[in-house]
Structures are given as C-alpha cells and as structure tokens.
Specification:
8 helices
Length: 259
C-alpha cells in the first residue's frame, strides 16, 4: 500500500533509540523527510546514519531538549513546519509516590504533557492551512491500565490524553488528525529500567522479572520496535484521515477489558 506520505516532512522526538527511532525509520522508509531529535549527539547521529543507509531518505538531526522552550525553538527552526509530528519523551522514573517531590512532578509534566502540547501549538496552524497534518503522541499503556510504580507517568500522560481528546475533534475537518499510541511491553531500555525497579522490590532477578512478564502476556512475547513504528506510520498516512482522537493500545493483548 502506498501510504501517501512520500515527500512529506516529519518531526520525530526522542528518536535516537527505542520506539522513537522505530517511528523515524518507518516514516523514512515511506519516503518522508525526517527530522530526528534527541539530547545525545553520538547515539542520534549513529541512528540517523543507519536510517539513511537503510532507506535513502533525507534525515536531519537536531540535538536539543524539547522539554525547554529554547530546545523547541531550535528544533522548529531546523525542520520548519512539519506535516507530521510524532511527540515522544523518555518516561519519568518509577518508584513510590512518597519519594517524589514537586520538582519530580514538574519534570514529568514538562516532558510528557506540556512539551507535546507546546509542539502541537507551534505546528498545528500550518497543518490546518495546508489541509494535511498528522500528529501522533507516544504515551503508554499505563494510561489505560495504570501501573503502580509508574505514578509520574500515569498522571502526566493522562493529562495529555485528556487534552488531545478535546483538541482532535476541533481540527479533523481540516484533515489534521491527532492520535495517541499506547505501548505496552516492548523490547526497549524503558522496559529494562522498569524490570530493574520490580527486581529491587521483589528480590527476584531482573531476568526472572522479564521472563515472568513475557510469559504472562497473551502474545507470549514482548513487542518489537519495528511493529510499533509501522503502526505509527499508518496513523500518519493519507488513508488515516478518518481516525482521530483515538488511543491505540499495542500490548499483545495484555489489557483484559473491552473498552
């Protein structure tokens, strides 16, 4: 299927590794010109070069912290007005809410709620004017089924989800869609960080924690970043113009509910 985004410009945040990188690669493979953003230069440049070799796409890199106004300004100056925006940020630290101070909550909100909203604010009017825009926010399955040790993430990402639910319905008539992708257990550094936290709490080894989580999933495995990237690129496609304000859960069937 031709997804109709060849020649479109895409901005993908936190894309030096993990799910962000997978989204950047899937978009590049479909012919989009991709701007990749991350805070670490070496890993970002390595990822971008690998994607260039694999896809022959035009890939631009920007080293910046999108949780800051200065970082967002640097990114937007480099990529202009993107047709496609994929927001993403590393999840806040796990733990017990008794351990967190106000600054921990502010950092979580800045990364996982306020920065995506600021990027949408900066790009959405140009999308409306062009009558094409695709915004995908990478959130978490914890929005659907909160995880006790991820309270910072539960709170901040749920705030973004509520905001998107209202905004998405106000712009879809202009062929601008906004959706959220909710990853469950994928083979990423974040999964391993969470496993280490559970390991400390339970006394089990990290490998045992991972094996038990894998076995407990109906799919019998963890997801691959490539699967996630391809789901993202479909939501960014020309064919996805009638899908908006949705929270697409990718978790191998782990969530047991109907709704």
């Amino acid at each position: 299927m031709d997804l109709g985004i060849a020649g479109r410009s895409a901005l993908v945040c936190a894309s030096s590794k993990g799910l962000g990188r997978a989204c950047a690669e899937s978009l590049a493979r479909e012919g989009a010109a991709v701007t990749m953003v991350a805070r670490g230069r070496e890993v970002l440049e390595d990822a971008a070069e690998a994607i260039r070799r694999a896809t022959a796409a035009r890939v631009t890199t920007v080293v910046a912290d999108i949780t800051t106004a200065a970082g967002r300004a640097t990114v937007l100056e480099a990529c202009g007005a993107p047709d496609i925006l994929v927001t993403n940020a590393g999840g806040p630290k796990p733990g017990d809410f008794r351990e967190w101070e106000r600054e921990d909550w502010i950092a979580a909100l800045d990364a996982n709620m306020l920065a995506p909203i600021a990027l949408m604010k900066a790009t959405i009017d140009a999308m409306i004017a062009r009558r094409f825009g695709r915004i995908v926010n990478i959130t978490s399955a914890a929005v659907k089924a909160p995880i006790d040790i991820l309270g910072l993430s539960n709170g901040a990402r749920s705030g973004l989800t509520g905001f998107v639910a209202g905004l998405a319905r106000g712009v879809v008539a202009h062929n601008v869609t906004i959706n959220n992708l909710l990853p469950g257990p994928f083979e990423t550094d974040r999964l391993r960080d969470t496993a280490r936290q559970w390991s400390r709490q339970t006394g089990k080894s990290e490998d045992t924690v991972l094996a038990e989580r894998r076995a407990a999933n109906p799919a019998g495995r963890f997801g691959t970043p490539a699967e996630f990237g391809d789901a993202c690129v479909y939501l960014c496609s020309a064919q996805a113009g009638f899908i908006t304000g949705q929270n697409l859960l990718l978790d191998g069937g782990n969530y047991p509910g109907t709704f």
